[in-house]
């Protein structure tokens, strides 16, 4: 009996009334229709509310509500067993066909998803025309209801990473986060239908906003481009945001009929795809829908649907070709057909398997490196990849690391059936996630990096900035970051970039430092920004309009190897490359209204004074990450003197951290008197590949001279520990996650800084760094080492985490593992139990880790030492035999034994039944007591008969 079956208080809130009504339908088997009754099982809706997994007993959700109807007096009548939780009709009835004049046992059982019984009840009744009802009570002391949930999947080929908003008839808005697989659930208890839903977030790197609708009668509402287009069409709105934001203006147009008709019209646009893929009766709104890249969802991996300003644009994502451009009102007159349907349908069919292969390839490339040299992963036909030739690309290779992981893997673009561009996050051990694109090709059954053919690097990202000036003013700006580089030094003189929001003649990028290009000063909108082009309101409108219309803003980078003295290009371009930007630019008013949602906040920036900054040798700040998802970040301190010379330091900002320290050690003291200002930046890249940067300016009043002063203890300490990390104390260990030898705990740093260490588990790692590996059976051990750096009155604490690998197993431990599951059943052979052994036993003589087993029998004549069974004769009777098994661990590689051989002894008892009696034995038994007295009859003796 499990813990739920002891519930004894009857739950009057749950009862089942079996209503018997004569029916002329149904019946089967040998019974005639006149012998059948249509039995309707009624669920009390007032107390039961609804039949779904949200019902609870004692806090456990019901997964099965099983009704069993068992005939008691006729074995020819089949029993009925039905999970009415899933088959109940909308009006609360379950209908069964039963046979009249049969006594039935009715049982009701509720179970949770793990099979635990929550409550149970039973009763008996004979089914006849006069039977009106049968009451069944499910015993429980606590029956409760979860809130009413609305569930579904929000996806556009890939799951939406973001939020689902629901607006009810009264304008009340609730929201919930979308799960990684695209599923969501919203509690609608207390809300008034009908509901308008909006999924907002990103799909891959593309921002998205889509709507759906329900009048409240459905518990499943999906949100996808099909529902988005249908609901926008039915409502008369111009876009998803227009509909959701002004729902009261469009509600009267939304009904079950109008939305259903619109869904039918929208899906008809894709009929050719559905026919090719064998999809029938597709219901994007309330049907089964998974963001798994198959079927109709797979079509959306390759076909984009965008609505803006009342215009619908359907594009082929693989080529960028426009398939449909139409007003919302006339879009249903369009269809997609021809070779694009055949090609994309092939991609949908083959895509999931190929994507699985591609993910395995990328995971091996970054984490395992099973092919050996990096060159074995690169297609021999590769020519260029982001400005690197194949040889340079291989020379700039990376080393696979088990601490690296691959996240958010997806296909970004399909080139052909065997070539694609994939996008993913390469996640490091400190939580930093680097967004990465790789073009890969499949040849001879294996995948390779194929290179993207780009002779130079280019990248465009929306950028938003918040700048706190030393005089107390705060400025917000938005624009586009234009990045380009010539890593192979091909002599590129100028790169002209054109695109939405930029001047009609483009923006010129010229060589800067380290092969990277900067915006020509004459083309900048801000003299302090070398790569950020900040928009005017009109330029920002043009940029966002392109994204709303097409789903992306297209930028073109054209590189020239010759230019005049004014950096105007001349001659034939080296190459032109395009770049699709998918994230919208955030308006300055939106940034200003909610800066914590977009910018990293430095909690401790208070005094922005350059003299103080220099005298303290830098700054240390705690920070709070924004609500946006952070891929990676960096902190920098950039100082400029009055002649334009710059000094800066920049460090990675692990998203697992909450504080940062930067020093001014890179600024020579001779430059102090000529410094104009320093800016402290906290910047990051979001999952939509938009950049956000918050800056705080440090400046002195005009004419003030900064005098170098003796550095403080804190400044000296900060400089000393700026490069100190876990790699400095690893010793001969290659990784902190697999420690096998002593650590090398350095006790002093530059400038006289002292280090002391404290271990969280000195039995594994002492305070001096001596390592004792845990025994094999205890497994690996996690240990934290706290290092305290001290200089004068200043101190700073670091915590490093290590995993100490367990020692190799001893002979005794290997023996224990071998015999852990060894018992009598392992040697029974074909015998079913030890009390009736009739065939040979199977004596296992070796176990997996090297243990050997020897056997000896208490009666070898019955069970030999090799397990052979000889059954005793009938007259000998059954035999009880004891088998002694001796398990010893002595691997063959061992030559000498110095500490004894670990041994374990087992005894097993077996009963061997005797053989059947032979004729001779039966005769002997029969005549054993036979003599003359058996035939004397009534005579008293043989001498007087």
Overview of the molecule:
The protein has about 950 residues and is of the alpha+beta class. About 15% of the residues lie in helices and about 35% in strands. The strands form 14 sheets. Strands 34-30-29-43-42-39-40 form a seven-stranded mixed β-sheet. Helix 3 (about 225-235) packs across helix 6, helix 7 (about 270-275) crosses helix 9 (about 340-370) and helix 8 packs across helix 9 (about 340-370).
Topology at a glance:
Layout: E1 10-22, E2 36-43, H1 45-48, E3 55-57, E4 60-61, E5 64-71, E6 80-83, H2 84-87, E7 93-99, E8 103-111, E9 117-126, E10 135-139, E11 143-145, E12 149-153, E13 155-156, E14 158-159, E15 161-167, E16 173-177, E17 183-187, E18 195-203, E19 206-214, H3 225-235, H4 240-245, H5 247-250, H6 256-269, H7 271-277, H8 295-302, E20 303-308, E21 311-316, E22 322-327, H9 339-368, E23 384-385, E24 388-389, H10 390-395, E25 405-416, E26 419-427, E27 433-443, E28 446-449, E29 457-468, E30 474-485, E31 494-498, E32 507-511, E33 517-519, E34 532-534, H11 537-550, E35 553-560, E36 575-581, H12 588-593, E37 601-602, H13 610-615, E38 618-624, E39 630-641, E40 646-652, E41 659-663, E42 675-686, E43 691-699, H14 713-721, E44 754-759, E45 781-791, E46 794-804, H15 811-819, E47 851-857, E48 879-889, E49 903-912, H16 919-927
Parallel strand pairs: 29-43
Antiparallel strand pairs: 1-2, 1-10, 2-7, 3-4, 3-11, 5-6, 5-8, 8-9, 12-17, 13-14, 15-16, 15-18, 18-19, 20-21, 21-22, 23-24, 25-26, 26-27, 27-28, 29-30, 30-34, 31-32, 31-35, 32-33, 35-36, 37-38, 38-41, 39-40, 39-42, 42-43, 44-45, 45-46, 47-48, 48-49
